[in-house]
Design a protein that fits this description.
This protein is α/β, with parallel strands linked by helices. The chain has one domain (4-290): Spore Coat Polysaccharide Biosynthesis Protein SpsA, Chain A (Alpha-Beta Complex), CATH 3.90.550. 25% of the residues lie in helices and 26% in strands. The longest helix is centred in the last third of the chain and has 15 residues, at 220-234. The chain is globular. Mean pLDDT is 88; it is low at 12-18.
Length: 300
């Protein structure tokens, strides 16, 4: 059975300032998602499921619908604030859905096979998709998930601080925990540091970090729903509370029978956290095209 690619594209892009999910970066106007889908097809994925918001569904479908016909099965899932939520538990002032774990849960009825989860606005690279596909088709089961690990210093932005989930692993390279570090940047001495309550800490530049490239068995949906249904009433007074994928992962590996492998990749990550990142991302894509990794026009 071919695995599915689940793309989280419902974010509001608040820091970026526009709908970066459909911005063209490639020579023929390709989005970052186009390159992810192209890599997924080459690696043996059979379906792509887009998690989007209803309010930009028409424009999104117009961008992706026709060009993928005959290349990969496509499905759209909407992440709305009331998805899997009792209306009485939604804070009156809340304006957006409940985060990445909630987005995954919204795909429960659309995904019945092992699947990978990625962000819409991150470039992950061919090696990452090949390794994810191999894992999903040969090792993934109800007790074994995986995450693609990237080297921390290769995921920073020169235009501002970033947040990264730093992976702690055991001797077998299985995930022990993900520590969310905010305000990460490289200082003037070239050291990678993060700030926590105005206190500066150094972190190893070669640390393995999560860029939200997960590999799951569909059994995750039942676990996610149980966790989410407990999370919402506990956080009904916090309008910014988010149900992140690592919450699901932590609960999963809390059972000693379960493991999440951390699979290192040689791929170079790049993405658009800030508007100022866009020219660098465009240059990077043009370079991999020039290197022959991709054709000049992906879907011609």
């Amino acid at each position: 059975m071919k695995p599915t690619l689940l793309i989280l594209a419902a974010g509001m892009a608040s820091r970026y300032g526009s709908m970066k999910q459909t911005e063209g970066f490639g020579p023929s106007g390709e989005t970052i998602m186009d390159y992810s889908i192209y890599d997924a097809i080459k690696s043996g994925f059979g379906k792509v499921v887009f998690i989007i918001r209803k309010d930009f569904a028409d424009g999104f479908k117009a961008n992706f619908g026709n060009k993928l016909i005959g290349k990969i099965d496509v499905e759209y899932v909407y992440q709305e604030m009331n998805s899997f939520v009792d209306e009485s538990n939604i804070p009156a002032d809340r304006t957006k859905p409940w985060g990445t774990g909630h987005a995954v849960l919204c795909a429960k009825d659309a995904v019945k096979e092992p699947f990978a989860v990625i962000n819409a606005d991150d470039y992950y690279g061919t090696d990452a998709f090949a390794k994810a596909s191999n894992f999903l088709q040969s090792q993934c089961n109800e007790n074994t998930y995986a995450i693609i690990g990237y080297q921390l210093d290769k995921t920073l932005s020169p235009h501002g601080t970033v947040s990264r989930g730093v992976c702690q692993v055991d001797e077998a390279n299985n995930l022990v925990s993900i520590n969310e570090r905010t305000k990460i940047y490289k200082n003037e001495d070239g050291k990678v540091i993060y700030e926590d309550n105005a206190v500066v800490h150094e972190v190893a530049a070669n640390s393995s970090v999560s860029m939200n490239f997960w590999c799951f068995h569909p059994s995750i949906f039942n676990d996610a729903q149980i966790l989410f249904e407990a999370f919402v009433p506990q956080n009904k007074d916090n309008i910014k509370a988010e149900f992140f994928i690592p919450i699901i992962a932590d609960a999963f590996i809390g059972n000693s029978a379960n493991v999440i492998q951390v699979i290192p990749t040689t791929s170079q990550w790049f993405g658009v956290t800030y508007k100022e990142d866009a020219p660098g991302v465009k240059a990077s894509i043009y370079q991999v095209v020039a290197d022959g990794v991709y054709p000049n026009s992906l879907w011609a």
